[in-house]
Amino acid sequence: MKRHSRTSELAALLDLSTCLSCSLPMFTAFFLAQPQDGSGDSDLLEVLCSIIRDHLEPSKKTQPGSRLGNETIGLLEALCWNVKDDLIRRLAILCNSKDVLMILLDTSQPSRLLSRSTRLLVFLATHAELSRNLLSSPESAPTSEGKAKDAPKLPHIERLCSYLIDSSRKDSEAVEMKSQVLSFFGILSVTHTDVHATLVGCQVLIPSLVAFLTQMIKLLWEGDEFFMSSTETITRTIRTLNQTLFLLHHLVFGLEPNFNLRHRLHYAPSRTFNGITHMFIVTFGRLSCADPPEWIDSTQKVELETMSEMAQDLLDLVVDGPEGDIIWAAYQGSNDAVDVGSDITDEEDMEAKLLGDI
After folding, report:
1. Is 30 helix (H, G, I), strand (E, B) or coil?
2. pLDDT greater than 90 at residue 351
3. Origin, by domain of life (predicted)?
4. Which of 32, 67, 121, 288 is 20 to 30 A distant from 111 in Cα terms?
């Protein structure tokens, strides 16, 4: 098929295989069965990985967003969904093929394919047996249970983080993709202690969550007229904000009670996260100390108010004592900073005063 470029026929075959996997209980077991030595049969999972390498890499792809890509991912999703417990480990072939994952997550892929690819990662992450494979680096084998390696190089995780903080991606598929990215990290974080530690050790994940929170907080407190007129967009933003904040809180407090968040922000990669401490102070100052924006409805205000305790927990790790009092004074009594009888007159004064001590 590759030689004759019969991609349409191949896509149809993959679509049929997906239907069979969802309809016939034994089909998935047959598809995932390991070929016997000397049988001459190809490993069908390896065949799917080859299809991705040969047809979906952007430099080779003749039809961006073609049906073949969607059908390939659709079959992999069906296999993940219908696999029996004794065959879950077979899916590690895909998890360990980091070149395949990077092709699926390539920045040149269309938004729809990226959304499907991140959803596939969520499906894989639901199988705890695969969590270490999903977080193994391309150069090493997955870690065994116990202490995770220090700061592993995980290009696919860094790519997911880059999509999360890419504010230029605003279409519906991109919004769904970002939600899937959060779900992927959230599911992995509760599988094994060493997997949780690997996520926390990733140098870009926690700064990315802070930067993503900052984008959403800026929309809520400084949103334009179009944003403020869309109740659906506001509701979705608040719920995504809650999901992101809960994930960050869980990563920071889940295993290491003495995690040095201030240090992580201070030493975040400067090229990508320039000014991340400044972002953190404004974002978590608003979440923990400021009243919700007046223009949102009462239900949305309650949702925002319920996040203040988690935000305060995280803020206390970076600023404490007199610094915390400065933040409270800056936001007390207004959505914007006001003069409350001190020398703190607005957010810029508050930030300048605090950043000198960070």
Report:
1. helix
2. no
3. Eukaryota
4. 32
Residue 142 Cα distances to 23, 154, 324, angstroms: 33, 12, 42
Residue partners of 142: CB distance under 8 A and separation at least 6: 96, 132, 133, 135, 136
Question: Is residue 350 classed as helix, strand or coil in its secondary structure?
Answer: helix
More confident residue, 32 or 358: 32
With tokens 């924006």, the residue in question is 293
3-state SS assignment for residue 315: helix
* Torsion region of 146: left, alpha or beta (phi above 0 gives left; psi -120 to 50 gives alpha): left
The stretch 104-114 carries a mean pLDDT of 93
Contacts 24+ apart (CB under 8 A), 188-193: 188/125, 188/131, 188/134, 188/135, 189/247, 189/250, 189/251, 189/254, 190/250, 191/125, 191/128, 191/131, 192/128, 192/131, 192/132, 192/145, 193/145, 193/255
Res. 340 pLDDT band, cuts 50 70 90: very low
Which DSSP symbol is given to 109? S
Q: Is the pLDDT of residue 196 over 50?
A: yes
